[in-house]
Design goal:
about 140 residues
Length: about 140
C-alpha cells in the first residue's frame, strides 16, 4: 500500500523536477550533500537506500552537471567525497522556492486521515521500518 502511494508520489515529483533538469535520484543525492556536508559514496548509498553502482552513476551525472564536487580521499585512492557546489546550492534554493514538494503542489494522499490516524500510521511505519532494518541489514 505505502509502496504504491510512494511510487505514484515519486512519479509526480519527477515530473515536477523535470523543469529543473534534475532526476529524483540526483535531487536526493544533492539534497543529502546539503544536509550532511561532504559525503562518502558508500555511506550516501546506504542512507538513500540505493545500491552503490546506481549511486555512482547518479553521482557522476551530478558532478558533470556541476551540482556536486568530487574530492579524492588521500588515504584511499578508490574512494572520494562529494560535496555541494555553489551551482548545486542555487539549484536546491530554486527548487525549494518553487514550493514543488508542498502538499498543495504534489497533493497529499494521507489527507483522508485525521490527525490521530496519521500519528498512529507514523508509529506503525516507524516500528515496521526499524524491524526491517533489524531483519534485512
Amino acid at each position: 500500500m505505502m509502496g504504491l502511494a510512494y511510487g505514484l508520489w515519486r512519479r509526480k515529483a519527477q515530473a515536477a523536477l523535470d523543469r529543473f533538469g534534475i532526476s529524483f535520484q540526483q535531487y536526493q543525492l544533492v539534497r543529502q550533500a546539503r544536509r550532511r556536508g561532504a559525503l562518502i559514496l558508500s555511506v550516501a548509498a546506504r542512507e538513500l537506500g540505493m545500491d552503490k553502482p546506481t549511486l555512482s552513476l547518479v553521482a557522476r551525472k551530478c558532478v558533470d552537471a556541476g551540482w556536486l564536487l568530487r574530492t579524492d580521499i588521500v588515504t584511499d585512492k578508490r574512494a572520494s567525497r562529494l560535496s555541494l557546489s555553489g551551482h548545486g546550492e542555487e539549484l536546491l534554493d530554486q527548487i525549494e522556492a518553487s514550493g514543488l514538494f508542498s502538499p498543495e503542489s504534489l497533493g497529499d494522499a494521507l489527507d483522508v486521515l485525521g490527525s490521530d490516524e496519521r500519528a498512529e500510521l507514523r508509529r506503525m511505519i516507524d516500528r515496521v521500518s526499524r524491524r526491517a532494518r533489524d531483519v534485512f541489514m
